[in-house]
């Protein structure tokens, strides 16, 4: 009997391994979009509505079986659904009464503690974050100077839940507000200590001339002579809110951004009041505070600061003065301010030629605005022409830093330019040549948009 | 994805090395370097093409083919021909 041996040489064996590997790699690179012709036919505008494992059924024939001859519209004049969510029927229905008594005995919390024995129970901050959404669902209520909503909505404070106000270390408090604010729709959260210098970043007075003053008052509010801010408010919480990034056009994203930030602003005020701390609302947004907090860098974007993460896509830059002890956050250098000197893409794309094209400077680039004193001096930066800017928002969409993170080239650019400016002009030119930035708004209707139109990378932390 | 690409690329390079060895072709270190840089550009180009397509940046995705993948293929070819021509001269 002859001993079996393969006739394949080692060379041929390696060749076949390599070919098999190449085939596997090619197959994995081109992920199958279609499993069969039905998949092709089911596409709407070339985009599958569902993943491959989901079958589409016939109209009116879902997975739940329905007898349409039996099913009738719900008649609310004859009866309304009896549920344990209301005490209305508890005297009629023993099961409802029993469920409500169980709830009132604390069953919700007891169940959580059965499942998680180390759960401490709802804290003042838990109540605050739940109740915060009442402020935004009350219908675009806006906070007054003291953070309250007047007759529109009552903030539930700690005393309303029989609890003391929240206490924590400055580090714990920063983590808490970051978590809560993001849950409520904010993006970045920073803290700027109130000092002699940073007080200058708050408006001197309102449009009637009534000054904003730090005083010994315990309660913020308007007096006959001033807007009184308690001296105890030693921190400014800075938080950002997004406008949608996927549109890369104006003005719909910025309008949506306004709607979003007003809701978030209502929620954060209700939350801070809910944990028992001051939350003074100074009108208008504030890029200076954003710059000091390190959530943006001052940039050629002028009206918006630029973030290394979302570019010019922060529509809201809010600051709330508080006496909550907080760990400060620090200004950053991600290379953006330096990059702006080589780029100027936003300025070049301005339809009104209202954006500065020169270097950062102490005075104003436009002679007429300089002569009019129509700017805030005291910093070497970029200043747009308010005489010419009609707030079309096109400058938001052309920034190279708006890029998402699906393609690695964006991170390569972000990191490289933060280390060395050698390639900044090249990167800026490539950004324009590759047609990044503002898009034809007609094309947007054909795109596969994510919820709220947010880039996934913008909302991931 | 990148893991699979890496495995495939690694397999290709090993397979190429063994095949060249069997043919008696011994590329110099700089010829290997040129080829590997080319391979890296091709892989980076493919990854960015896919990513930019997901980002709905169709123009940028197409230009990535020209800006990364073509030069990468060119470098691979350059390293190859340098090695082959040198081998022909010496034999």
Describe the structure.
The complex is a heterodimer of chains A (461) and B (91). Chain A is α+β, with helices and mostly antiparallel strands and 461 residues long. Chain A contains 16 helices and seven strands. Chain A has helices spanning 10-29, 37-42, 94-104, 107-115, 124-137, 170-183, 252-274, 287-293, 336-342, 345-348, 367-372, 394-397, 408-419, 424-433, 441-444, 456-459, and strands at residues 189-193, 212-215, 221-222, 227-230, 235-242, 280-281, 314-322. Chain A has a four-stranded antiparallel β-sheet with strand order 1-5-7-6, sandwiched between helices. In chain A, a hairpin with a 4-residue loop joins strand 3 and strand 4. The N and C termini of chain A lie far apart (68 Å). With 91 residues, chain B is mainly alpha-helical. The mean pLDDT of chain B is 88. Chain B is built from three helices and no strands. The chains are: A alpha+beta (461), B mainly alpha (91). The interface between A and B is medium-sized, with 24 and 29 residues.
